[in-house]
Write a structure and sequence with these properties.
This protein is of the alpha/beta class. It contains five helices and five strands. Strands 2-1-3-4-5 form a five-stranded mixed beta sheet. Strand 3 (75-80), helix 4 (84-93) and strand 4 (97-102) form a beta-alpha-beta unit. Helix 1 (2-20) packs parallel to helix 5. The mean pLDDT is 94.
Length: 151
């Protein structure tokens, strides 16, 4: 658990970069053999690209680092539950473990139907382990602060 907290804090650091750039503050890091091989934070507005989510950027960095399109021995730490687009990318990456902080009942991949109604179903690869609520309060607070400041 200490290891998960350490790497989630790294993802939170990425999310803070997004916050500072007035992007929705989501951050992600991909870890393999206790080394970060990919980092990302939301850059949708900056890049004018709706696919520029933290997970997508971190995954691309990890693929480039390894020279591979699969990450079965890796894990990803994400401050907010992945959306369905990112869940699809995680599925195809065959990543071994997905760890996220805050749930996203509006846009999350497993907190809303159909997956919330059928927990035995998952948008992630069947071999992927999913862990949620790591530093949940800290991750959620970043999102709440962002939207509070925007209103």
């Amino acid at each position: 658990m200490q290891e998960d907290i350490h790497f989630m804090r790294q993802a939170i650091n990425e999310a803070r970069k997004a916050f500072e750039e007035e992007e929705i503050p989501v951050g992600a890091v991909v870890v393999m053999n206790d080394t970060i091989i990919g980092r990302g934070y939301n850059q949708v507005e900056k890049l004018k690209d709706p696919t520029a989510h933290a997970e997508m950027i971190a995954l691309t960095a990890a693929f480039n680092y390894l020279g591979s399109k699969y990450l079965p021995g890796a894990r990803i730490y994400i401050t907010v539950e992945p959306c369905l687009m990112c869940a699809g990318a995680l599925y195809w990456s065959k990543i071994g473990k997905i760890i996220f902080g805050a749930t996203d009942e509006k846009n999350g991949s497993i907190s809303r139907p159909p997956f919330s109604n059928y927990p035995q179903l998952s948008p992630f690869h069947p071999k992927a382990i999913v862990v949620k609520d790591v530093l949940q309060e800290e991750c959620a607070q970043l999102i709440k602060s962002f939207f509070k400041n925007r209103r």
